[in-house]
């Protein structure tokens, strides 16, 4: 079986990919094994393993910290993918890379297509866009998968786990209501990537695609749904009210797009399927989280 190299196996997406990818073909590399700020080590690892497919599930995702940790954000999100791309191209491998809705500024007012002009508002988005561009320039066989508002059972910092934590301690939670996107589970991203790999034998399948769940939500909508679904599963909650606030009422170091919903029509057509609603996936994630506790 052709070998798959998974970079970033300890993250929330990497952990899910380890469950969906064939174990007998998988080589998993975690953060403590591969320092993505060391380009020579990245190149050496890829040339040593000589995989058929490389999945880069690693990223610097601390959106606000990136405003001051710019060099580190670019090292992981832009320079490391460039090294992966050149090494992949050298051995004829396919590189699958995860990107973000934050490459857009959110001012279009409707769904973003893959060929819309990106214009990030923050360092995180700019570093991820630079990574995309480096991959397109450095690797003929690549698939860039943009997604949004990722959460999952694994990992500590995702929005669902944050809401469950604060909702267990306080009667009121204030959540931004004027930023709109699509919550997307790490499990569903892993499943889509696993389904796509066999299709990557042809060059026609290469390029940039969007994948999210269907439907749209504000962070406020998402929080309300989290608490409603969590109550049905008897999660310990003290929260009685979710208060909608404006972005201006919750200033952050990084500016965020107000409407970053991605069109998934291109990928849906290729896969000849429709993607489930975000609330359905949220419900499943909470069930899984409850069972794993």
Please describe the structure with a list of short key phrases separated by commas or semicolons.
single chain; about 290 residues; alpha/beta; Rossmann fold; 6-stranded parallel beta sheet; two-stranded parallel sheet; globular
How would you describe the overall organization of this protein?
The protein is an alpha/beta fold. It has a domain at 4-156 and 183-216 and 261-278: NAD(P)-binding Rossmann-like Domain (Rossmann fold, 3-Layer(aba) Sandwich). Helices cover 39% and strands 16% of the residues. It has helices at 12-20, 39-49, 70-91, 123-138, 159-167, 186-196, 219-232, 265-271, 278-292, and strands at 4-7, 26-29, 53-56, 94-100, 142-147, 150-151, 172-176, 180-181, 184-185, 207-210, 217-218, 241-245. It has a 6-stranded parallel β-sheet with strand order 2-1-3-4-5-10, with helices on both faces. A two-stranded parallel sheet has the order 6-9. Strands 7-12 form a two-stranded parallel ribbon. Strand 4, helix 4 and strand 5 (142-147) form a beta-alpha-beta unit. The model has no long low-confidence stretch (mean pLDDT 93).
């Amino acid at each position: 079986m052709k070998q798959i190299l998974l970079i970033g196996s300890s993250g929330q997406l990497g952990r899910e990919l380890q469950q969906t990818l064939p174990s007998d073909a998988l080589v998993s590399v975690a953060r403590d094994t591969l320092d993505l700020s060391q380009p020579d080590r990245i190149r050496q690892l890829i040339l040593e393993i000589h995989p058929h497919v490389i999945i880069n599930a690693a990223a610097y995702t601390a959106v606000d910290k990136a405003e001051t940790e710019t060099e580190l954000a670019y090292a992981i999100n832009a320079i490391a993918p460039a090294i992966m791309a050149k090494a992949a191209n050298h051995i004829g491998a396919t590189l699958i890379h995860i990107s973000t809705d934050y490459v857009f500024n959110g001012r279009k007012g409707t769904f973003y297509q893959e060929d819309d002009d990106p214009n990030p508002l923050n360092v995180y988005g700019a570093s991820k866009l630079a990574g995309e561009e480096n991959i397109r320039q450095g690797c003929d066989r690549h698939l860039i998968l943009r997604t949004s508002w990722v959460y999952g059972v694994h990992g500590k910092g995702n929005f669902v786990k944050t809401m469950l934590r604060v909702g267990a301690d306080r009667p009121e939670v204030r959540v931004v209501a004027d930023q709109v996107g699509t919550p997307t589970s790490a499990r569903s991203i892993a499943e889509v990537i696993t389904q796509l790999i066999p299709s990557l034998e042809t060059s026609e399948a290469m390029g940039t695609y969007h994948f999210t769940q269907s439907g749209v939500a504000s962070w406020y909508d998402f929080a309300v749904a989290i608490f409603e679904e969590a109550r049905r599963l008897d999660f310990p909650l003290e929260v009685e009210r979710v208060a909608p606030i404006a972005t201006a009422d919750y200033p952050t170091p990084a500016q965020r797009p107000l409407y970053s919903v991605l069109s998934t029509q291109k990928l849906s057509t290729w896969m000849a399927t429709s993607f489930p609603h975000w609330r359905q996936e949220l419900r499943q994630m909470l069930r899984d989280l409850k069972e794993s506790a």
